[in-house]
Amino acid sequence: QLNTYYAEAYRDLSYSLGNQWSLEEIAYLNNQRRSSFTYNMIRRLVNLVEGIQRDGRLATKISPVEDSSEETATLMTDVMQYIMNSGGGYDKISQAFRDSLVTGISWICPYLDYRGDPVNGDVKFNITNWNDSIWDPFFFEKDMSDCSFWARRKYLDRSTVISLLPDQEERIQNLAYGNRDDKFTYMSFARNWGMQKLLNYTEYWRRKWEVRDVLVDMDSGETTEWKGPKDRLQFIQAIHPNLKIIRKPVRTVELGIIVEGELLYYGKDPWGLDDYPCVPIFGGDYSPTYDLYTWKLQGIVRYIRDPQTELNKRISRHVDLLDSQLNSGWIAKTGAVTNTSSLFKSGNGQVVFIRPDANMEDVQRIMPPDIPQGQMMLTEMFNEIIPNILGINPEMLGMPENEKVETAAILAKMRQSAGLISLRGVFDNLAESQKILGQKVMKMMQVNYSPEKVKLITKKDVTDEFYSKSFSRYNVTVEQGLLTNTQKQTEFMQLFTMKQAGMPIPDSLIVQKSDLHCRKELNEILDAQAKQEQETMERQNAMQEQQLETTTEGILAKAKSDQALAMERMNKIHLDEAISAERIQRAEEESTAQLLNMAKVLKELEGMDVTHLMGKVEALKHLHSVEQDLHQRDMDHENLGVQHRELDMQQQQMGHDQMMAQQQMAQPQARE
Fold it and tell me: Cα–Cα distance between 429 and 433 in angstroms, integer?
């Protein structure tokens, strides 16, 4: 099943390296004395896609789910960042991604290296290439959950094999070199037998299901696989009645190690993953439902291989036509030329000598044909087709079509984004593979790293949840984030971004999270500036308080003055009212006296003429009416003056109340 894929992948790799002519084509061109030129456009496009990935690398981080423990998730992220940086994980991901762009698939494999830490081991990474591995050709899932087997081969020297299997040293010492078989035939070592003294070291991983005891908490539903002795299960169940013991199938893997055809180990996964120690990265198309592996799995090189072949042929033909312009050949009679080798020379100043008895018609130059315009257009078309097949536009290659400065930048950015959409599937495959890799690395560090090693890495105490499988399964998730060398740098970038967004982040905290060598000196300068600013602020506050007290005292003094003036005016109003009342009383007394005098006059006039008397009475009434009108007018003027004075006093009292209210509001603000 895989042999057809191996053949096409080998050809894809050859094209990416520039080996784009077959042996038959080269032999044909050599017979015609023509050149076989290669104009490798594939390498440029592969480098472009790889460069986009390297420029936008994302880190593997572990984030809490909703209200889960933030402390444990941060601790796991710190360990993950250390592993990925110290083990070269991110660089291996980029390298495997490039390989998958060419051949369609590559494998990134985490493993434990005990050479630096013989107790816990160090998680590191290596790459298994397309020709180093054999896998179940019918698996569908990218996490290889339905893959029945996976194998890989390495060629190692004898001492390295002994370091990997120290308990089999005697058997390894007796193994002979160069036992050839029919497996992994596309490996470069397999095609160079006898040129090195290396042993073929083959790992064979097989999927297996085992029935195991599982503890189930009937209250919470949490499950935990039991790996201890069975006689303790009853004791645990007696202590915790809510625990129930069930048996269920668990997926795991077994490993067999074969060196030069000798089985030296077969047993459980030595790293505690219970899964394959590899993650596939697909750099093109993988269609599990298709039956022919010739087309089922392929990288982006496969799409542009045929146009690249035609481009090489067209340009090589154009070069031949141009060369023919210099020397298109001669038609000559036998013996007409003194030196026949001169007919095969080309260049300026080349002379062909003929015999004295020969005619000029005996030697004639063959006129070279012109280059057809259709050939040039066809070549240009192939040159444009190659990037267009991958959805790569000129802007992504640094060649904008619009040369106007005012529109070129915006248009180029929009077209670059549009070009990346066609490659979105390739980058999504990589993101999913990186997530699966992060899950396996998280499980390896939970199983193999001791609390002491975790504390050495993170400088933090290990939480109880760190080693909980249920916590890693339900409470955290592996995702991608900002890539920096350390988690501390990630925090620095996040704090800096929040500071730019307007959040009140202290500068001292940002400096503390930075990787500057002069952090201590910079913090001292910032502390001194902060102290100086605080002292300046205190002086300003003191001056403002003093100014406010002065203003308040002035307001109070003016308020007291206005209050005294208001009281003086009120007293004057009361005095005016008393004077007015006295005048009214005096007017009434005068009126009564006048009436009494009139009565006396009437009594004295009883004996006088009635007619004459009535005239006198009417005259008196008229005089009295005029006098009453004058008195009433004086009273009206007096009352109007009193009303005006009362209205002025009310307005002054309202102004005084408003001033006192403003003073009361200003005093809390001054204290703040």
Answer: 6
